[in-house]
Amino acid sequence: MQQQWWHKSVIYQIYPRSFNDSNNDGIGDIKGIIQKLDYLKELGIEVIWLSPIYESPNVDNGYDISDYYSILPEYGTMDDMNKLLLESHQREIKIIMDLVVNHTSDQHPWFIEAKKSKDNPYRNYYIWRDPMNGQEPNELDSNFGGSAWEYDESTNQYYLHLYSKQQPDLNWENETMRISIWEMMNFWIDKGISGFRMDVIDLIGKNPDKQIKENGPKLHDYLQEMYINTFGKHDLLTVGETWGATTENAKLYSDPKRKELNMVFQFEHMNLDKIPGKRRWDLKKLELVELKQVLSKWQYALGQEGWNSLFWNNHDLPRIVSRWGNDGEYRVKSAKMLATLLHGMKGTPYVYQGEEIGMTNAVFDSIDDYIDIETRNVYKERIKDGFSEEEIMKSLYMKARDNARTPMQWSDEPNAGFSKGKPWMKVNPNYTYINVKNALEDEDSVFYHYQKLIDMRKNNNLIVYGTYNLLEPDNENIYAYERILENEKLLIVCNFYEVEKKFYYPVTEYTKARILLSNYNNSGLDISNIRLRPYEAIIYQISEGKSDK
Ligand code: NOJ
């Protein structure tokens, strides 16, 4: 496998609105990010993925872009953006941008033009259909609820929106539209960005008439065309958000020979705590054995061809320590265990802001405290469908996207040190003790554990290129696996729960083991019989050899 810079990097996702507010208007901004670059440097971060900072009416927090070439004034100016690039590069930190090109905002000039008439030059930038018997063209539904078709009275046609009606879908069949996208991507590449995270990119090949959303027939053609016309000429990182990815099509995206993307975000593991066939709000307990099956399937499938991305969190997902860890007594231990489990694998790990200090889900008492358009829609729908208020609030507490979007907790000062103004969204009240300041002062904090994991990836080829091998697939409490490269091995053992458990690893008289990292002091050195305390996670380096090297 040809080595790439992004094989050794850990990527830190910033959700600008909630990261750091420099001008005290209650909204995070670019200058606020610049103020925290040294913090990220200390964590060991070399790449930032910036969620959208473009001009936007913010119906979906920036994922509805009205101008790809300018910065939302709440976040700053293009000069601030240039400064962010400069200051990051001075610290050897790269920036990758969110690329949202499945849809634009309905306030984008292309759409404003397109709506004017059927023969407007921009009409065909979007997807329009005639009514079917006076109704929607078909039953395609929006990922935010309701029909994916919105009626436009003045031209008597419907347009497609796979998200909110303020996010009309671009028509990728239109070559002129595609060329406009290449131009825009090259504008940002020329500015010195280091790559793109591509929002719902598996939707661009859709066929709305056949009601196909993901993995449409022309998807890979478009990506290859994008490669040739934009990032293919540069050494950039590209990661596609692909909710519908299977291991088979992930290889299509990420096999370097095919010249598409470097890797994709796949979400199969993120569906394990919902009732199969239902929506993510229909909760089910996670089975560790299933988690092992899914993660291992991806590790094996993309072991030699393609490349995995590794993540527990992003701005659409609940906080992992509340989801699959323990956000009470064992918050610190379980956050470190989950980090170890993931960062020991093969692929490029992503850390979402606040994950590195073990931030938790927010318990909001009322639907009014939730801001996210998806959450509000789901609430209304489920009330209509007869769910009780209590049931709905329970699933929101577990799964709402706002869990990840509460302001970053910097200190125990008012508003968690995020802003001196009123934050755009409620701060999680536990900021008084879960915050960066405390984490930096405590050598046992989650922060320093992440710092060590990040450092290990930079300096240990076993973590980067070692082959993955799952141990004890049926063990219901312990997730253990090896990483193997030539004569060296890593053994990663994680107790996923609070009960103490034993783990036995086969050894010979020549087996030597040393601990590279653990979330407890004095973890067992005898790997033939390891007693794992609640949420204990250990990385051992193992070698077999008669000589005493
Ligand atoms: C995926 C993004 O991550 C999410 O936040 C957004 O709502 C949808 N795509 C639509 O852009």
CATH superfamily of the largest domain: Glycosidases
Instruction: Give average pLDDT, whole number.
Output: 97
Alpha-carbon distance between the termini? 29 Å
CATH topology of the largest domain: TIM Barrel
Put simply, the count of helices is 15
Keywords: Glycosidase, Hydrolase
Catalytic activity: Hydrolysis of (1->6)-alpha-D-glucosidic linkages in some oligosaccharides produced from starch and glycogen by alpha-amylase, and in isomaltose
Family: Belongs to the glycosyl hydrolase 13 family.
Organism: Oceanobacillus chungangensis
Describe the protein's architecture and organization.
The protein is α/β, with parallel strands linked by helices. It has 3 domains: 10-100 and 175-359, Glycosidases (TIM Barrel), CATH 3.20.20; 109-160, Oligo-1,6-glucosidase, domain 2 (Alpha-Beta Complex), CATH 3.90.400; 467-544, Golgi alpha-mannosidase II (Immunoglobulin-like), CATH 2.60.40. Helices cover 27% and strands 17% of the residues. The protein has an 8-stranded parallel β-sheet, covered by helices on one side. Strands 14-15-16-20-18 form a 5-stranded antiparallel β-sheet. A 3-stranded antiparallel β-sheet has the order 6-8-7, with no helix packed on it. Helix 10 packs parallel to helix 14 (446-459). 1-deoxynojirimycin binds at residues 60, 63, 100, 163, 199-200, 241, 315-316. It is found in: Cytoplasm. InterPro entries: GH, GH13_cat_dom, Glyco_hydro_b, O16G_dom_2, SusG-like_C.
